[in-house]
Design goal:
By secondary structure, this protein is mainly alpha-helical. It has 5 helices and no strands.
Length: about 110
């Protein structure tokens, strides 16, 4: 509409600390092993978005449920399930796409 100001806002991918926080928030409501290494998970997910991390956690949960069904005992989400989830979840933002967004954001902030 006339008179409205459009705002273009660039939000980059989460850094190491943000990824660790995202893992903690998502897994807070899950049955998680007490020794889950959030710092290691964060370092393994460089270039992943918050949605990618959510998908990783969902996959880890599915893997734990599959293990329960096949072995007949309860499993918590642990490092092994989460690391397997990482290996099975591709990043949704390629380096090229991130670079193009970053370049566009720099262009728009200069004008």
């Amino acid at each position: 509409r006339p008179g409205r100001t459009d705002l273009i806002l660039f939000v980059d991918l989460p850094d190491l600390a943000a990824r660790e926080s995202i893992f903690k928030v998502i897994l807070k409501v899950e049955d998680v092993a007490t020794d889950v290494d959030y710092a290691k998970l964060s370092s393994l997910t460089e270039g992943y978005s918050g949605a990618d991390i959510r998908a990783i956690c969902g996959r880890a949960s599915e893997l734990a449920l599959d293990a329960e069904e096949s072995q007949g005992k309860e499993f918590s989400i642990n490092n092994a399930f989460l690391e397997l989830g990482i290996s099975q979840t591709p990043r949704s933002v390629s380096d090229e796409l991130r670079q193009s967004y970053t370049a566009a954001a720099e262009k728009w902030t200069r004008t």
